[in-house]
Amino acid sequence: MSGIYIHIPFCKTHCTYCAFYSELLRDRQGSESFVSALCAEIEDSAFPDNVRTLYIGGGTPSVLSISEFKAITAALESKFPVSGLEEFTVEVNPDDILHWGQDYVEALKSLGVNRISMGVQSFDDGELHLMGRRHNAEQAKSAYNLLLNSHIDNISIDLIFGFREGLDTAVIEAELLNLGRLPQHISCYQLSIEEGSGLDRMQQKGLYAMPADEECERQYYAICSMLKRLGYHHYEISNWALPGFESRHNSAYWNHSPYLGLGPGAHSLIIDEKGNFIRRWNDECLEKYLQLGSMAPGSERQRAWNTLRGEERLTPEQIREERIFLGLRTDKGVDGQRIPEDKWFVSDSIIVDML
Ligand code: SF4
Questions:
Q1: Higher pLDDT among residues 320 and 115, named by residue
Q2: Which residue has the least CA distance to atom 6 on ligand 1?
Q3: What are 329-345's pLDDT values in tens digits?
Q4: Domain 3-253: which CATH class?
Q5: Which of 56, 63, 201, 266 is most buried (CB neighbours < 10 A)?
Q6: Do residues 84 and 128 lie in contact, with contact meaning Cβ atoms separated by under 8 Å?
């Protein structure tokens, strides 16, 4: 299983809890220049494996126009063998879906997108306002209906817990059941306050306080019970799916499979010709990315991408540790066959128990 992740580094506004790399999108010229640089990076990239999943995330990919999506998919198709593509996900914001309308969603579908991941985050307008989201609960539900009307039959929604005291899962359950059709997939992450984020500043000024750990734990277990009741398979700490709709792309991360990341801030895990595992990342610098992307095609540009990149060769210990902690996130657990034997490792009683 191998996938490509593309990072779109733009948002229209910044949410108060967010730490993902993104710049404010000021005009269409900004996104057009970025897409042209991204197509250059695609052209200059190599990835030996057959691509099984594509994931366009961010940032907010739905700030891109359909013609920009067309340019990206055309560049991908001309470079990588994508005929065996099993899953093609695009992340969207409800506000963009309402702005662009049904034609936009249908056009994404015609480009091969077969899974949409939408950031709903909460069904409470007060919370959405504090989070700095650019939609309210009603708009998120309208956008969800628009996806249903566009016959998207694999929809994932993101929710956040641990944002405020007293989260009532009965309310969330009722909202989910009122959606017309349950989303096939739900990612529900606990809020964490990232340094330098809006919430961090609000917390320092005494304008916001996170619930206590015990309350977050109560919320998490209440969510687990509620989603189990609704028929969801809890397959990863923060991810639930109706049977058969587990995310293939994200499952490949947790399975420690290789993937190629493109766009500023994107990470890759690549196995080189000698069998080494290489972690590679693009720096979070849009300006430099645009500068490299505007160079004339050729070997000089191809080499120049390295000035934006960092990489490390994973040691056997790192591979072991990553496979253990990634496996422990999932209901499959750690696959002992894929953990090379090691004295230090097998002397740890907790790990031995897991294997
Ligand atoms: S949560 Fe999503 S929309 Fe909000 S700032 Fe982060 S990447 Fe942008």
A1: 115
A2: 18
A3: 999 998 887 776 554 44
A4: alpha beta
A5: 56
A6: no
